[in-house]
Amino acid sequence: MSKYALVLLRHGEGAWNKENRFCSWVDQKLSSDGVKEALDCGKLLKELGYEFDIVFTSILSRSIQTAWLVLEAMGQEWVPIEKSWRLNERHYGALIGLNRAEMALNHGEEQVKIWRRSYGVMPPPIDESHPYFFEIYNDRRYNTCDIAKDELPRTESLKEVLERLLPYWEDIIVPKIKEGRRVLISAHGNSSRALLKHLEGISDEEIANLTLPTGVPVLLELDENLHPIKPHELLGDQGAIQAAIKKVEDQGKAVASKT
């Protein structure tokens, strides 16, 4: 029998998701479709009887905006939200802003899949010549992080995402779960994949094949030691979810870019 239920959520579609660009730490609001995804997610969770006592997000707007809209649709706007950079999307380094399909044409689909999905491979690091470097590192949201600004990552593999996420998970989120708080984590595709890898013991090789679509809640039922009692479940219409997964996977295919 499960003792705890944890819900993970990749934010709704952002503007650069629609444009098929590596967004990473560049701050983006939700697209109109992303707003609908978040509201629909909240309506689904309400219909299924979910209630939350606390929500955790990254410090990127698309994660926070998704949490707001989900809670609004659930009629639970009063639920507190806590934010941390440790739940941010993976830092894609020099790839930030580039179109995935164009990258697949130039470097091959397999290389793009390695950059996007592998556990241990880091993209080339961002430096001051990058057009978004100063937008990211001059952003005052990082002034109050628990590490110095100059220690923030310049690129990350999924392994590094998990390593910077785990202290927050263990020190902040786990105690809330064990207190009996009902927790929603509204984060990103890679921070959610990293946490699922940790909790479910997914191998380094298998994690490359785990795809989370935007706006689809993921249910984890956990025992008293926070071990899953069964595989995670994507909630909602399964046909629509599979179509959404294929859409995400096809972003790395070598097709002519429309942007």
TrEMBL record:
Source domain of life: Eukaryota
CDD domains membership: HP_PGM_like
Any one GO biological process: glycolytic process
InterPro entries: His_Pase_superF_clade-1, His_PPase_superfam, PG/BPGM_mutase_AS, Phosphogly_mut1
One Pfam entry name: His_Phos_1
Reaction catalyzed: (2R)-3-phospho-glyceroyl phosphate = (2R)-2,3-bisphosphoglycerate + H(+); (2R)-2-phosphoglycerate = (2R)-3-phosphoglycerate
Alphabetized GO MF terms: bisphosphoglycerate mutase activity; phosphoglycerate mutase activity
Site residues by UniProt (Transition state stabilizer): 188
EC number: 5.4.2.11, 5.4.2.4
EC category: isomerase
UniProt-annotated catalytic positions: 11 (tele-phosphohistidine intermediate), 89 (proton donor/acceptor)
UniProt keyword annotations, A-Z: Glycolysis, Isomerase
Binding-site residues, substrate: 10-17, 62, 89-92, 116-117, 189-190
Homology family: Belongs to the phosphoglycerate mutase family. BPG-dependent PGAM subfamily.
Function, as annotated: Plays a major role in regulating hemoglobin oxygen affinity by controlling the levels of its allosteric effector 2,3-bisphosphoglycerate (2,3-BPG). Also exhibits mutase (EC 5.4.2.11) activity.
Protein name according to UniProt: Phosphoglycerate mutase
Organism per entry: Erpetoichthys calabaricus
Record lineage: Eukaryota, Metazoa, Chordata, Craniata, Vertebrata
Gene of this entry: BPGM
